[in-house]
């Protein structure tokens, strides 16, 4: 049976991350826990600082797999945003373990970039290309006939929060694989998202109506639709510009 350890939000994560443990539930901060002053989310300390300084905005459950669990506002609903990508990661890992996907597969860059909406991800995609040593023009890869190792491509989804990889994996694996992966982690009733359509709908809300996955696939495979939708992204209506 797992044990819930109740401590302040900042030190709670330290108990697991740093290996602190107790034989009885902890009701106050251990003496060796130090407040994290930083909130720089590019660092581990910054994440701990954020949890400690704004605990009312954070929900977490950390399980070390050895019977020690840290929980904080665990039943509070939080906006997922890119956190939903962990479901895609889990589905990918399950597929590799089952031999359904090969982590060393060489994927044409075209197959990655067809799910990418340029200029809408805060530079995540070009940053991933840079890290992987893939030639690019600061927005997209310059040689779409080149290939990238599948496992390296998936790392971009997590490390840089690349928005193209989740829809690529959805296309490769199918919705059932994602739903099953979510259920295996305790998430029943998972509704599979499409980041392509979610982004496009910001610029043209009508694209978010109807079958969103069908719209994403039109972006990926219908050149004329892609050209028309790209014009909306590059030249959004004034009301969209004013909101940004």
TrEMBL record:
The keyword Signal applies. GO terms for molecular function: hydrolase activity. It comes from the Bacteria. Residues 61-194 form the Beta-lactamase class A catalytic domain. InterPro entries: Beta-lactam/transpept-like, Beta-lactam_cat, Beta-lactam_class-A. Keywords: Hydrolase, Signal. The keyword Ubl conjugation does not apply. Residues 1-22 form the signal peptide. This is Serine hydrolase.
